[in-house]
Amino acid sequence: MLHRDRVRARVLRHDRKGRPEGRVLDIIERRRLPIIGRLLLESGQWVVAPEDRRYGHDILIPKNATATAAAGQVVAVELTEPPSLHAKPVGRVVEVLGEIDDPGMEIEIAVRKYEVPHRFTPETLARAAALPDHVRAADRKGRIDLRDVALVTIDGEDARDFDDAVYCEPFKRGRGKTAFSGWRLLVAIADVSHYVKPGEPIDEDAYERATSVYFPRRVIPMLPEKLSNGLCSLNPGQDRLAMVCDLLVAEDGSIDAYQFYPAVICSQARLTYTEVAAVLGNTRGPEAERRAELLPHLLHLHEVYRALLKQRGKRGAMDFDSVETQIVCDDQGRIEKIVPRTRTDAHRLIEEAMLAANVCAADFISTQAHPSLFRVHEGPTPEKRVTLQAYLRALGLGLHLSDEPTPLEMAAIARATHERPDAAQIHMMLLRSMQQAIYTATNAGHFGLAYDAYTHFTSPIRRYPDLLVHRVIKALLGKRKYHLTPSPKTRTPELRRGGKMVAPRQVKPMSQEMALWEAAGAHCSANERRADEATRDVEAWLKCRYMRERLGEQFSGTVSAVTAFGLFVTLDELFVEGLVHISELGGDYYRFDELRQELRGERTGVRYTLGVRVQVQVSRVDLDARRIDFRLVREGEGDRLPASGRAERSRPASASDALTSVRSADRKAKTASRERIARAKGGAGKTASRKAAGAATDSKTGTKRRSRR
């Protein structure tokens, strides 16, 4: 049996944590996809060590099945014989990816390891090539002409596709007590649905991918480049087709009215967050002078943002300040530096505009009672609520948390503890108490954003659910109904919630059409998780490579997660996280207090909690396991490097030369550490916090990236 095989099992008992244990009765289906690993020559026998350690077996390769691969190279292997009780699996090399040190190899490994589709079908490429290079007269038929409106795009410096453009102006209506005063906000979104039709090859490929995947220095797009960076991208000075959400926002930030309509637009400028922040920060500065014709519109956008922000506070939407980082790579694809991303009013301005358009789309679809995909984020489960309540009581906080917490209660706790020295620890626990956001046809609201109904409308170039929402809105505008057709690529894989594998959402018996929407939601949610896992894997590999050159060096850091097996520490200067195993904390016996999220020494009383400042030394880096180990440096200690660190540091610089020696010399050490790695995966302190943060902050920039509100 191998990782990813489908099996039939019988539950025999439950362990002391309530987890089921059982016996595999039968293997129903074996995965046929290639396995990625490195080809090694050991004692005259060719073997491939899988990149994904969950496979648990090296794969034997006959001498005549190595293709053109050389020892140390990364290859894709197809199994010819499955493993048995007494024999390892046997396979043959079907693709040679190259040397492990080749630029971008970590991405090539990740897209195959996580089965990310990265090649468009010939039919899709042919259909994309046949598309026009510009907007034709026939395309503009039946659309509102907004080419004279000063719409602009505001994105990061490294953005290549532009989904959205915005414009704002003051608006007054009526007189006397019934007069309305506020702003008219236009959010124009690329009309991908005009070019990507249901059932066509481009649509099939887009559905299979479900999302674009953003790696450092490379993007695996959902759509072919001609669409994503060309015909659908709202490039400045070029006519583009768009779906527009036209809103009236009152002075208190409430949405008084809205309408959707197809339009043709022409972006007046491609602005960056840095540029807009500079303009708003100094309206008489050089940036403002350079954009003098757009300055009034940018100021109106800032005004409506502040109004929407007030309404956000009234709703009780979650808003935790967390440090996001950006990896800056050199020409060889290696990390040059890791820098924090500074969120400015320019970022928040776009986020609030996108949130307003998304919530209007959800409201429009809900009032029409049309099937669609909603972005659902449910509140804390009863178990997590009890844990959070106990944690707050343990800290002596007299803060109210009801049996059915509301977003306002959670936001009130965050505000009340904002000035405390342990604020980061408390906010982290609030985040961990929440569930992950998913796509589903059953609207249950968005807890983190405090919306009764919420969907994704603003990024159809990079998210398939947004494309489906566009099709539904167009159908409703045309007094029609959009019928979702089944796809042979639809899968309903299990989703991860709270670190456990669960089946897709189960609701009351539904129609066949609603079942199709639920299946599409499960498919898109699972592929979103897959994209996140692949991205994290690449970033972890790059960080390990980055830290391998810093073995023995000392850094100051902050405890970012506490588990039963040790502390995760994030370095202040490098923004890299590593593990201080519990065995490195000294001779004391440490007990893990889950309620307080701390390790406490029984003899010394020393406590380690979230937010504690520590000094650490980089002691070991394991590229294969994507793992960085630290050891605590106490006052008065020198620059001593542990034996494990010295051994790791003495490895040859060339990975291809080191593979065989490292594998044979360290095999026993790696085997002995698997138990510790397994426990690390079980704790998943930092991973859990990232997932919770992603669920609670579904904004445009929070994930490129990637944020997936």
**Total helical elements:** 17
Strand order of the largest sheet: 5-4-3-6-7
- The CATH class designation of the domain at 551-691 is Mainly Beta
Give the % helix. 25-40%
Question: Major β-sheet, in short?
Answer: 5 strands, antiparallel
Stated plainly, the CATH topology of the domain at 551-691 is called: OB fold (Dihydrolipoamide Acetyltransferase, E2P)
Q: Quickly give the CATH architecture of the domain at 551-691.
A: Beta Barrel
Rg measurement, Å: 27 Å
CATH superfamily of the domain at 551-691: Nucleic acid-binding proteins
Mean pLDDT: 85
The parts where pLDDT drops under 50 for at least 5 residues are: 492-507, 641-697, 701-709
- How much of the sequence lies in strands comes to 25-35%
How many beta strands in the DSSP annotation?
30
Describe this structure in words.
The protein has 709 residues and is an alpha+beta fold. Among the domains are: 6-109, OB fold (Dihydrolipoamide Acetyltransferase, E2P); 551-691, OB fold (Dihydrolipoamide Acetyltransferase, E2P) (Beta Barrel). It has 17 helices and 30 strands. It has a five-stranded antiparallel β-sheet with strand order 5-4-3-6-7. A five-stranded mixed β-sheet has the order 8-15-14-11-10, covered by helices on one side. A five-stranded mixed β-barrel has the order 23-24-25-30-29. Helix 2 (122-130) crosses helix 3, helix 7 (295-315) packs across helix 8 (345-367) and helix 11 crosses helix 17. The radius of gyration is 27 Å and the shape is globular. Residues 492-507, 641-697 and 701-709 have low confidence and may be disordered.
